[in-house]
């Protein structure tokens, strides 16, 4: 409808006109070639000729006004402008059209390969679209208002008055209900996306020919097959031949230089050494003015139970944190004991259990038949405790009924519901005739990996738990005890007698029945004596130390019914070869004896007897009160006695590898540090603790600290892990005790640094995520007080390679001993030779 | 013809090999030396028999693998030296057409 640019005029030409002017549709002018130049004169001629009939008559004036001679007629095949032809009216438009033609003609062949040019903005060419829109809008309006659209329209909109401000009601309407309720664009498959790619860039690579194949074999029945093989080896002559060959010689020569370079590289520097990690260790000591002293953490003393008494032995509970047991004994000499024996019988001896949460009241009391000098928790079942008494009896306790109470006091505030401390009576005691004849000074559990037969031969332990105990006493005996019921070797008469006597015994004290089978009839399994090497008589051991022969740890086994266990016959068990059956014993006379516990059978009498000890060393000037192995080195033993201590290496028989100088006061007890291989603690007669750091100095202790006024009777270090595994602490030049208390309280604090001196000290922060492990040292003194000390950082964190340095140091000392021995022999030989020479000279002189 | 100036010429490659091996063995931290032929059979060793056999078999496979790796990447390349560093020690292997020489060293000693 309308809408065409001003410089063209659509017109329809009849077929006659078309023939006349040679522009027949689809013959002279086609879609591809729509342009026809008409001469103005011809058009004017036609108009004159046919007047009103001529197609050109409506535009007569326009044609006459045309400046040029030739007009352009364009065949409008697609009726773009409404008619089949249109006439170009202005010269400019004609030029443009002609240019388009030329360019189009030119462009056609090269169109496919034309490069894309970015189009520049062109001035707006009006092609009549605004007119179209205007006319369209006008037409619409005229349709609505039913009047011709000559000019602007006026609208007037009105609404009923009451509808203004009326409440609006909205309602839902389902679009599907009404027809044309919605208009949608339905999806359709766009052809653009299913284009076929004619060209594509890919990479291609060749690979070696691979082929995999398989077959299925019929396998009617399975048959086990095995292959036995051994490595191929050359015979000796072949090897010799190879070694002689030229090829080998050339090879070795050519290759040796590479090796030397590589080996020297390794020697010069270790490229895989992590300097960063090693740096942090030194940094922790730097700037910390940490107090190297042992800090008092807590102390326990009970006025009721430990008045006038001394503590003979301490043991930490192996599993419950913060529970420690002490054995309390009378502070009387032998005569006083005899004189006051009636009073002693009325006051039974006790083992007290202390917990950190309650420093005033002990948690548990174990009743003993007599003063206990040594006791131990069973490693595989911490509810069983064995103790050795002063009268030579071995006692067993079972505290499984009170374990929850012990555990409960750790976490709770320590409020006792019951005011009375519970007392547990011993559940089994050995017979007096069969036990030791002197106070038992050392008692130890054998590890649960082996057990010992009647001959002393170590056998495999099928139970997997600790069932045997070793005791020693100054009655010159070392005894092995078994907590299982002995094999029944009774005659029929005995059995009948037993059945008659079997009636339920009263249990007035509420003692658990765990070891009823042993009570009062317990006999030792083996009795090892220590006959003296040179003279007659025997050594009287005070402390013993066995080699730690643990191999596979079968921990975690449920504690069995001990009454049901039986000592197996030696034939049923397999003997173990690699268990070391030798033990060190420190004696009353200050000697260290090295002996084997296996018994030998005397062929004549059939009696079992012990062999003489292999070595014996006199070192100390007093009783040996400690024989302990280092937790880091299985063959290093510490002995303390008299005024000195000595360190021995198992296997070195020349003497101690390290011997300390005599100190001013007597050394009463010693213990290795649990975390540092080079540190040991010595307790003194005057209440001092000497801390020896063997890597620092060996002629005197690194540190001496006074703990109490009286003699120190026992030292036991322990590492306690706290309930809370992580604590954020600020470690500055702050006492570690402060940190420890927070850890003990079991709560999480973020510490704000405490400033000591504002201007002078550089405040050194170290925020460390610390797994709260406290290193504590339990020290007991002669007055019956138990002190718990905290081991400071310097004494508990090992330096790098400390173990290696220590082992090297020990080796050096062993070499020194060997060297001295050699020199001594040499000197003796020299002396002998010299004397012989002298004698010969003398005789020669006389003979002349 | 065998004598020359009254002396018999005696080639002594064994001594030279021995000397070289002794020199290597004497270095600090060297724990053992093994000479293995191309098939993995030990020819000379300073360790005990079971260890030798074990080392020879395992290291032979490792060297074959390493060598084929190097040659796959570049066929004109070849393996000259292989060092295996572990926590406790270092194993050094020099392969050849016919033999390997294996040296075990503990560098931190």
Automatic annotation (TrEMBL), chain A:
InterPro entries in the record: Dynein_IC (IPR050687), WD40/YVTN_repeat-like_dom_sf (IPR015943), WD40_repeat_dom_sf (IPR036322), WD40_rpt (IPR001680)
GO cellular component term of the entry, any: inner dynein arm
GO molecular function: dynein heavy chain binding; dynein light chain binding
Annotated organism of origin: Oncorhynchus tshawytscha
Signal peptide span: none
Source taxonomy: Eukaryota, Metazoa, Chordata, Craniata, Vertebrata
Domain of life: Eukaryota
GO biological process: one example: cilium movement involved in cell motility
Keywords: Cytoplasm, Repeat, WD repeat
Keyword Repeat: yes
Subcellular localization, as worded in the UniProt entry: Cytoplasm
Alphabetical list of SUPFAM superfamilies matching this protein: WD40 repeat-like
Designated name of the protein: WD repeat domain 63
UniProtKB/TrEMBL annotation, chain B:
Pfam families found in the cross-reference section: Robl_LC7
Chief location bin: cytoplasm
InterPro entries: DYNLRB1/2 (IPR016561), Roadblock/LAMTOR2_dom (IPR004942)
Gene3D superfamilies in UniProt: Dynein light chain 2a, cytoplasmic (3.30.450.30)
Compartments in which it is found: Cytoplasm, Cytoskeleton
Coiled-coil segments on the chain, per record: none
Molecular-function GO terms, alphabetical: dynein intermediate chain binding
GO CC annotations, alphabetized: cytoplasm; cytoplasmic dynein complex; microtubule
Annotated keywords: Cytoplasm, Cytoskeleton, Dynein, Microtubule, Motor protein, Transport
UniProt xrefs under SUPFAM superfamilies: Roadblock/LC7 domain
Domain Roadblock/LAMTOR2: 17-105
Gene Ontology annotations of biological process type: microtubule-based movement
Function: Acts as one of several non-catalytic accessory components of the cytoplasmic dynein 1 complex that are thought to be involved in linking dynein to cargos and to adapter proteins that regulate dynein function. Cytoplasmic dynein 1 acts as a motor for the intracellular retrograde motility of vesicles and organelles along microtubules.
Similarity section: Belongs to the GAMAD family.
Name of the protein: Dynein light chain roadblock
Taxonomic source organism: Oncorhynchus tshawytscha (Chinook salmon)
């Amino acid at each position: 409808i309308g809408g065409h640019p001003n410089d063209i005029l659509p017109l329809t030409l009849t077929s006659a006109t078309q023939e006349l002017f040679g522009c027949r549709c689809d013959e002279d002018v086609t879609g591809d070639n729509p342009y026809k130049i008409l001469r103005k004169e011809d058009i004017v001629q036609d108009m004159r000729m046919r007047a009103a009939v001529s197609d050109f008559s409506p535009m007569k004036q326009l044609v006459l006004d045309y400046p040029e001679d030739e007009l352009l007629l364009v065949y409008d095949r697609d009726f773009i402008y409404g008619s089949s032809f249109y006439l170009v009216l202005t010269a400019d438009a004609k030029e443009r059209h002609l240019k388009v033609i030329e360019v189009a003609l030119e462009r056609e062949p090269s169109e496919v390969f034309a490069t894309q040019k970015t189009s520049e903005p062109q001035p707006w060419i009006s092609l009549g679209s605004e007119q179209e829109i205007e006319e369209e809008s006008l037409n619409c309006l005229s349709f609505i208002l039913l009047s011709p659209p000559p000019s602007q329209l006026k609208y007037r909109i009105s609404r009923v008055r009451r509808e203004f401000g009326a409440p609006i009601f909205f309602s839902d309407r389902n679009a599907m209900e009404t027809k044309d309720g919605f208009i949608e664009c339905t999806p359709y498959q766009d052809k653009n996306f299913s284009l076929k790619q004619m060209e594509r860039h890919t990479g291609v690579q060749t690979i070696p020919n691979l082929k995999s194949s398989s077959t299925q074999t019929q396998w009617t029945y399975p048959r086990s097959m095995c292959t036995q093989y051994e490595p191929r080896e050359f015979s000796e002559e072949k090897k010799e031949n190879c070694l002689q060959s030229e090829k080998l010689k050339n090879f070795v020569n050519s290759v040796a230089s590479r090796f030397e370079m590589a080996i020297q590289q390794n020697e010069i520097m270790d490229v895989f050494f992590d300097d960063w990690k090693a740096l942090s260790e030194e940094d922790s000591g730097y700037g910390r003015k940490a107090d190297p002293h042992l800090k008092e953490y807590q102390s326990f003393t009970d006025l009721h139970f430990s008045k006038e008494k001394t503590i003979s032995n301490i043991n930490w509970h192996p599993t419950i944190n913060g529970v420690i047991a002490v054995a309390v004994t009378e502070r009387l000499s032998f005569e006083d004991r005899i004189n006051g024996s009636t009073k002693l019988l009325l006051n039974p001896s006790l083992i007290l259990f202390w917990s950190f949460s309650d420093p005033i009241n002990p948690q548990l009391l174990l009743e003993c038949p007599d003063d206990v000098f040594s006791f131990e928790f069973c490693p595989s079942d911490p509810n069983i405790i064995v103790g050795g008494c002063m009268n030579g009896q071995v006692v067993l306790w079972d505290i499984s009924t009170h374990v929850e109470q012990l555990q409960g006091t750790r976490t709770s505030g320590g409020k006792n519901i019951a005011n009375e401390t519970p007392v547990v009576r011993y559940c089994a005691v050995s017979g007096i005739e069969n036990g030791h004849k002197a106070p038992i000074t050392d008692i130890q559990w054998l590890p649960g990996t082996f057990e010992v037969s009647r001959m002393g031969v170590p056998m495999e332990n099928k139970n997997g738990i600790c069932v045997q105990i070793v005791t020693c006493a100054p009655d010159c005996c070392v005894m092995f005890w078994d907590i299982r019921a002995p094999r029944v070797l009774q005659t029929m008469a005995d059995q009948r007698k037993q059945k008659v006597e079997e009636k339920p015994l009263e249990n007035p004290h509420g003692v658990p029945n765990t070891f009823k089978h042993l009570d009062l009839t317990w006999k030792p399994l083996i009795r090892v004596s220590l006959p003296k090497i040179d003279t007659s008589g025997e050594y009287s051991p005070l402390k013993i130390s066995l080699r730690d022969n643990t191999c596979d740890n079968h921990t975690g086994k449920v504690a069995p019914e001990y009454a049901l266990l039986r000592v197996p016959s030696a034939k049923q068990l397999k003997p173990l070869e690699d268990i070391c059956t030798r033990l060190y014993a420190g004696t009353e006379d200050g000697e260290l004896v090295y002996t084997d516990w296996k018994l030998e059978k005397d062929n004549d009498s059939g009696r079992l007897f012990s062999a003489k000890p292999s070595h014996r060393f006199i070192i100390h000037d007093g009783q040996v009160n400690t024989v302990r192995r280092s937790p880091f080195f299985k063959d290093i033993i510490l002995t303390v006695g008299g005024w000195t201590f000595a360190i021995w290496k198992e296997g070195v028989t020349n003497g101690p590898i390290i011997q300390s100088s005599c100190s001013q006061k007597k050394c009463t007890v010693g213990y290795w540090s649990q975390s540092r291989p080079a540190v040991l603690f010595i307790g003194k007669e005057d209440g001092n603790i000497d801390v020896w750091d063997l890597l620092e100095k060996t002629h005197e202790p690194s540190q001496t600290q006074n703990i109490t006024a009286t003699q120190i009777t026992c030292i036991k270090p322990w590492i306690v892990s706290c309930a809370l595994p992580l604590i954020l602490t600020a470690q500055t030049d702050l006492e570690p005790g402060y940190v420890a208390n927070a850890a003990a309280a079991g709560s999480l604090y973020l510490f704000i640094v405490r400033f000591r001196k504002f201007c002078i000290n550089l405040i050194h922060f170290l925020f460390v995520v610390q797994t709260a492990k406290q290193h504590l040292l339990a020290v007991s003194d002669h007055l019956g007080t138990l002190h718990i000390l905290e081991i400071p950082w310097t004494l508990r964190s090992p330096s790098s390679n400390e173990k290696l340095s220590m082992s090297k140091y020990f080796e050096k000392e062993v070499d020194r001993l060997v060297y001295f021995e050699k020199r001594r022999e040499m000197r003796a030989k020299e002396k002998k030779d010299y004397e012989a020479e002298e004698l010969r000279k003398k005789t020669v002189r006389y003979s002349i | 013809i065998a004598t020359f100036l009254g002396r018999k010429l005696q080639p002594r490659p064994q001594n030279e090999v021995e000397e070289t091996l002794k020199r290597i063995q004497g270095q600090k931290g060297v724990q053992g030396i093994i000479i293995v032929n191309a098939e993995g059979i030990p020819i000379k060793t300073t360790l005990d028999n079971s260890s030798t056999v074990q080392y020879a078999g395992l290291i032979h496979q490792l060297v074959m693998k390493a060598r084929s790796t190097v040659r796959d990447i570049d066929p004109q390349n070849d393996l000259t030296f292989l060092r295996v560093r572990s926590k406790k020690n270092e194993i050094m292997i020099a392969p050849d057409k016919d033999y390997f020489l294996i040296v075990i060293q503990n560098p931190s000693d």
